[in-house]
Write a structure and sequence with these properties.
three-stranded parallel beta sheet, TIM Barrel, alpha/beta, binds zinc ion, five-stranded parallel beta sheet
Length: 289
């Protein structure tokens, strides 16, 4: 795909605010990813919360030690594709190649991957069939579609009359980019919104999943929001775990661990380590492999 196409994609997503978004990302990337992850690990440890990081494989490859550290800290890494491109803009063959190459990268790093979220939460209708070809057990992006995002339980797709093997997880629409970049919310308001959504999820007995990107939520300014939402969820008797744990437990027991009332799944995609990765993705052509 050409650099112009990338600019086109960016333009479509942010319209005329594209330069502003570049500047925002530049500012955010002044904090190193090591610091971002450390900030998050500290808060998650304090609150006994677990977090899942769908990570772009081309990025993971550049710093495998950081990806391994996430797992060693007791959190989960999932695939976020090989390159950060809209799967809807790729041919069926290219999508398949991107997904399978991403899984191969994590295998080479030595990390078991059981979950997936497509870049930009953007799925073609045939993606569920493609996911069936893999060993993945959950998907955390298809559930962002309007018809799924307000669901309160795992769901399966019907494929040629059969229920998918892959478990799909609804994804809440309150993401950090919506709250912070688009609506300009400060940490207090972000925490308030997240807590409100968790409160709504509690009586359903089901689950709630957020996409809270580390690049924003791991900043000193916002990392306390994670603490706030986990503590609130625990007070309402939630199990704050990883999608893999949640899916496996639910499949076996049909309820949540320790008879928790509901389940909170905190996830956040890692799209870039440094600003230059971001810039390269936006401006220049990148080969799939
Ligand atoms: Zn992403």
């Amino acid at each position: 795909m050409s650099g112009l196409n990338y600019l086109g994609q960016l333009g479509r997503k942010w319209g005329r605010s594209a330069p502003r978004q570049l500047y925002r990302m530049l500012k955010l990337h002044r904090t190193s990813f090591n610091t971002i992850l450390q900030n998050m690990f500290t808060v998650l440890e304090e609150t006994s919360g677990r977090f899942t990081f769908p990570t772009i494989a081309a990025i993971a490859k550049m710093r495998p030690e950081l990806v391994k550290e996430i797992v060693m800290e007791g959190h989960e890494v999932a695939s976020h594709g090989f390159n950060h491109v809209r799967y809807t803009s790729l041919s069926k063959q290219a999508r398949r190649h991107d997904l399978l190459s991403s899984l191969q990268v994590f295998k080479e790093i030595g990390i078991e991957i059981t979950g997936f979220r497509a870049p930009y939460d953007n799925y073609t209708d045939d993606m569920p069939l493609l996911l069936e070809e893999t060993d993945l057990i959950w998907d955390g992006g298809f559930g962002y579609r309007v018809e799924h995002r307000d669901k309160t339980h795992f769901f399966h797709e019907s494929l040629n009359g059969q229920q998918s093997r892959v478990t799909y997880i609804p994804l809440n629409s309150w993401s950090d980019d919506v709250m912070i970049d688009r609506k300009g919310m400060g940490p207090d308001l972000v925490t308030k919104i997240l807590k409100q959504e968790v409160t709504k999820a509690a009586p359903t007995g089901g689950l709630i999943m957020f996409d809270l990107h580390p690049i924003r939520m791991g900043q000193k300014k916002y990392v306390g929001c994670l603490k706030g939402v986990i503590e609130h969820a625990h007070n309402l008797d939630a199990w704050c775990t990883t999608p893999t744990e949640a899916v496996k437990y639910w499949k076996t027991h049909g309820k949540w661990k320790s008879d928790s009332k509901f389940c909170l799944l905190l996830t956040g995609d890692i799209d870039n380590w440094v600003f230059s990765d971001y810039l390269r993705r936006v401006l220049w052509r990148r080969k799939t492999r």
